[in-house]
Amino acid sequence: MKRLQPHTGLQIDGFTLGEKLHQGGFASIWEVSHPAHDLPMVMKVPTIMDGYDGPTIVGFEVEQMILSRLSGPHVPGVVGHGDFATLPYLAIERIDGGSLYVRFKAAPLPLPDLVDLAARMAAALHAVHKQGVIHFDLKPDNFLQRPSGEVVLIDYGLSRHEALPDLLDEEFTIPMGTFPYIAPEQYLRQRKDLRSDIYALGAMMYELATGGMPFGQPHSLKEVRKRLWRDPVPPRLLRPELPEWLQEVILRAMEVDPARRYQSAAQLMYDLQNPVQVRLTARGRRAVVQSWGQIWRQWRKMRGVRRFAEPPAMGTQIARAPILMVAVDLSPDQEKLSKALLTSVKRMLSIEPDARVAVVNVIKGSRLGLDPTTDAEGNNLHVSRLLGLRSWAEGLELPEGLLTFTVLEGVDPGQVLIDHAAHAQVDHILMGARGHSGTRRFLGSVSAQVVAEAACSVTVIRLPDTPAAPPERHDPEIWR
Amino acid sequence: MRLAILTDIHANKEAFLAVLADLEGRAVDKIVLLGDLVGYGPDPEYCTDKAADLVAKGAIAVRGNHDEAILRRDPTFSKSALTALDWTRPRLTAAQAAFLGSLPMQADLEDVMFVHASPQDPGGWIYVDSRTKAVGALRATQARVIFCGHVHRPQLYAMDRSGQVNDLVIPFGQDLPLIASRRWVAVVGAVGQPRDGNPAAGYALYDQARAEMAFRRVPYDAGATATKIRQCGLPESLALRVLSGGAS
């Protein structure tokens, strides 16, 4: 069969090519229609040089394999693909909101915009990671936006699926990625670590925050290598009005050693959504440029490094860094139960040391619309609950802000917990169940509601010897 | 069309039945048997009859070296293999032996080829156990995908557009798209006598429309098979191999 060249009006496998939308280095993008497919689509056609153009072909093969495995709002849907014998192409859903490149052009962004955008990028990345794929080429052009605001990750030509063979690793011996954002271990040709994507996301957040790339625009691999020992200029030196917490988040994502970064995109996203909870370290407060002496010491330490410790299998890596939400009932008569809950959390942490623990309590809002945040004495109920949670958690020894406290409010405590868990990408909820009172049987218990409706795993702690409460006892406050 | 590809059943009734049970509910349209229905194991009559029954119902089957050795004794076989074949031969009826003798050396289905050993020399029983052998197999045919057995260890090879061949590791149970831009050799693991250290019965699934394949493993009662091997007076090494999935 004859090899075809793409052009407007070309018909292939039922597709009709429209205008050329974009010509990139490795592929061209065409508007395309098909009578059997009603959705807006584009066709990506790799630009194959004469002869054997290895990287482009293998990249196309990799993308074809991986994209067909991905689903959900954060990836483009695949409609069809073509063969090298005639015309290799990928027909995919068109994303109408445009690429984030424009937003990066406008950097530095105002703080709220930046945080919102970065959190949405992290959500998209986590969605892809959860499906077993590491992207390995994150850059502004590869993030598109749906009109609904969801961020879509495209271009999987350098990606890796944990359950598929890594064709790139087998055929090429040079590190591949986009120089300004490539992670140190990716430079060292390690292609197994989802935390490489966290690094790239950190580098992009740096750009959104400061308007500049953390290491400029390196032109050679030798320049890329320098990020093994050179720190980027702290963002707050470039833009002093940035909060320390944001610098903390960015520089943590960009740690040279993957083990010191966020261990999942969901954990990064959690910090962006809960800035008050970010625990500041020297990173966040750093206000000077790395001195020549420091650079030299770092260089001595890093120059011989050939690889970093690899994470366990990818699914395990995500499972090892779960977000646990612990719903604590602070009622005085539930002390035993909350202690039992604490013991369970400790046990869980002993097997999942990278877990992040979000401790929450719900203030049950009044249906009559009275302000529930101030109690009769005028003490702020919110603050007293926070202090209660903190004192409950004493003894949970968690490093680096892996422990957060949130007081939620709402009329329906079960629903509040379920919604918060979904919003914060919680993997596992732990909560106590009170005894079996008649009222509870009548109204339904909070824990039963959470177990039935939450989208994640739920563990309910019960005291073995809880006596059944007398049925006549009036118990209007199910959850305190 | 969805294919289930089984090879090297080696008269292991328990493993054979376990794999057939695993196929139920997987919407398989056609079963392919890549040969070596007999040899090593204690149930050659049952396995031959079952295979003939499947073929009568539309299954594809090709001939293996042990099937052929029922008709012509081949002294180059290993000692335990010879012992087992000499034990097997008188047990089979003329019809069963004729069925084994009627099996073709290879079969094709669109762009897929089925052969017991290697298309390079189907009667030479070449083990496709290296990249070089995979290159040889691919050069000998126009088929885009080759399914073969004989090695008793599952392995996948891919030839890219430059002609370079890689061996690829894929986890069991994972669907792998055999992308159109490459040519593939899938060495299917043995049903009846795995030798990759995992005693569970091996086979492969291939979805022709999606061009996706998966290697699968099915645990079965290898203890029962080993007991039968001992009761039949077959070499102890054959019982141990079934139990351990041992590489030897």
Explain this structure.
The complex is a heterodimer of chains A (480) and B (248). Chain A has 480 residues and is of the alpha/beta class. Chain A has three domains: 11-93, Phosphorylase Kinase, domain 1; 101-317, Orthogonal Bundle (Transferase(Phosphotransferase), domain 1), CATH 1.10.510; 322-461, HUPs (Rossmann fold, 3-Layer(aba) Sandwich). Helices cover 35% and strands 16% of the residues of chain A. Chain A has helices at residues 54-67, 101-105, 111-130, 167-171, 184-187, 195-210, 221-225, 235-238, 244-253, 265-273, 282-285, 292-302, 314-320, 335-351, 381-393, 413-423, 438-443, 446-453, and strands spanning 11-12, 15-23, 27-34, 37-46, 78-81, 90-93, 133-134, 143-145, 151-153, 160-161, 323-327, 356-364, 403-410, 428-432, 457-461. In chain A, strand 11 (323-327), helix 14 (335-351) and strand 12 (356-364) form a beta-alpha-beta unit. Chain B has one domain: Metallo-dependent phosphatases (Purple Acid Phosphatase, chain A, domain 2, 4-Layer Sandwich), CATH 3.60.21.10. Chain B has helices at 13-23, 44-56, 65-71, 79-88, 94-102, 131-139, 222-231, 236-244; strands spanning 2-6, 30-33, 60-61, 106-109, 112-115, 145-148, 155-159, 165-168, 176-177, 183-187, 201-207, 212-218. In chain B, helix 7 (222-231) packs antiparallel against helix 8 (236-244). Chain B is globular and about 50 Å long. The model of chain B has no long low-confidence stretch (mean pLDDT 94). Classes of the chains: A alpha/beta (480), B alpha/beta (248). Chain A binds chain B through residues 52, 54, 57-58, 60-61, 64-65, 68, 83-85, 88, 163-165, 167, 170-171, and chain B through 156, 158, 160-162, 164, 166, 168-171, 174, 176-177, 179-182.
